[in-house]
Amino acid sequence: MAQQQNPPGDSRQHGNVISVGAGVSQPDPKMVTMGSVDTVTIGEALEVTALSLGDKPVDRKDAAAIQAAETRATGESKTRPGGLAEAAKEAAATNERTVSEEAKVTIADILTDATEKLPGDKVVTSEDAEAVVGAELRNSPEMKTTPGGVADSMSAGARLNQPL
């Protein structure tokens, strides 16, 4: 496969690679590859959140969104002991009492390897994304979702799963 080259100083996007003059290509920093080629699961969307927003301390709206995502993935209405939702709720409560930013529990602490931590997983649908967005909004004092957060990752996964 021939790589397209741009004149020096010219930067154009080709697929998910940006060609930067003189034949130097770099991955597009805005392109995040989620899941398999075919579909994105809820667990994979949660893992993307860990990658995109990993250093952010977990707060109540994150915990609510994680709980909604876990509920949608497993089909269970109750919080699973030892599950992602329980860990996120505990992290949010701990973080509210913790002064030092370095000591706070982060999104990455909870959501790294989410697909392995979930007892069940499924392909993200628009209904799943809507449920997670709603949970995050209901628990946000400013009534906003977190850019790059759980709701955003779930919405992106649902859009990618839409038939063309």
From TrEMBL:
Residues 40-97, 105-162 form the SMP domain. Residues 1-32, 133-164 are annotated as: Disordered. Keywords: Repeat. The keyword Repeat applies. Pfam families: SMP. Belongs to the LEA type SMP family. This is SMP domain-containing protein. It comes from Eruca vesicaria subsp. sativa.
